[in-house]
Design brief:
single chain, mainly alpha
């Protein structure tokens, strides 16, 4: 019987970034307060940013909201009330 082993070697990309001093020192204090490395802080922040701003996620969320047939039904009473309110407020206006 032949046994194969797969080894996964994780690679970490090193990069240099420029930050304003104020942001750098605030990040340093935050990392110390949280008890994590500067790299971990930047990794967490960038990961969160990418998740929140991923175009596919944004498009998917918008499609879920606006592609939902119940969306119009859910907001129809509000739209009707707003329309009636506008009619009432402008009924004596001369155009």
């Amino acid at each position: 019987m032949t046994v194969f082993h797969t080894f996964v070697i994780p690679y970490n990309m090193k990069t240099a970034i420029s930050l304003p001093d104020r942001i750098f020192f605030e990040a340093e204090k935050t990392a110390q307060y949280l008890g994590i490395s500067r790299s971990a802080l930047y990794l967490n922040a960038l990961t969160d940013y990418l998740k929140k701003n991923n175009r596919e996620n944004i498009t998917q969320k918008l499609n879920e909201v606006y592609g939902n047939d119940d969306y119009d039904k859910e907001f129809e009473p509000i739209s009707n009330a707003a329309l009636e309110s506008m009619r009432e407020l402008t009924k004596n206006d001369t155009w």
